[in-house]
Design a protein that fits this description.
Elements: H1 3-19, H2 43-53, H3 67-81, H4 95-101, H5 107-129, E1 137-142, E2 147-149, E3 162-173, E4 176-188, E5 191-196
Antiparallel strand pairs: 1-3, 2-3, 3-4, 4-5
Helix pairs in contact: 1-2, 3-5, 4-5
């Protein structure tokens, strides 16, 4: 196959491999399972694996600022303001990340006990403690100044993930600057997440 023909075949194959969708030509409802003739029987699986390999590693260190982190920090402030932890689940360390990185007999149960339940309690406590936080205006999230890499150990992290303590969520209430402290954040796959709020 010529270089142009191979490039065309890969262009057709890549969306199917990454998105799990089937190729179609003309009619979106007419599926086709045919792969390019020279891709081999497992061509799609190979392309899908390559796409997964391109994702950030579990233990990559993310930037300390960015639009994604800011948006998720706003959700955290909104969750406290409305006393609704479900509004900030995108900043909570993900359950699937915990399952993949913790050495525990039952990591799912441990995630609920050590991450999810304390997070919900912390949101409720902050909501009760801070007056007028429901009218707060987000200012910034500043990560703590010392980012450290954890050492893999038994009954702990299986991978050397990055953690930071003492992050601060700053907001305004009636013209006054207020802060919420975040006890610990942990990096996973290129993003920072709350592992301990209070």
């Amino acid at each position: 196959m010529s270089g142009r023909g191979l490039a065309f075949a890969l262009a057709l194959l890549l969306p199917a491999a990454v998105g799990g969708c089937k190729e179609s030509h003309g009619d979106a409802s007419a599926p086709s399972d045919a792969a390019p003739a020279d891709a081999g029987g497992d061509g799609r699986a190979t392309m899908a694996m390559a796409a997964l390999d391109a994702a950030p590693p579990d233990d990559s260190i993310p930037p300390t600022t960015g639009d994604d982190l800011t948006a998720r920090a706003r959700h955290l402030l909104e969750a406290v303001g409305k006393d609704d932890p479900d509004l900030a689940t995108d900043i909570l360390f993900p359950r699937d990340g915990w399952l993949a990185t913790r050495d525990a007999a039952d990591p799912g149960k441990e995630w609920e006990k050590r991450v999810a339940a304390p997070f919900r309690k912390s949101v409720h406590a902050h909501a009760r403690h801070h007056e007028q936080v429901d009218r707060a205006q987000f200012v910034s999230l500043e990560l703590g100044h010392v980012v450290v890499q954890s050492t893999p150990r038994r009954h702990g992290w299986k991978k050397p993930l990055w953690t930071v303590k003492g992050s601060r969520l700053t907001f305004l209430v009636a013209g006054h600057t207020r802060t919420l402290s975040i006890r610990e954040m942990t990096a996973w796959r290129g993003a920072w997440y709350v592992t301990r709020f209070r």
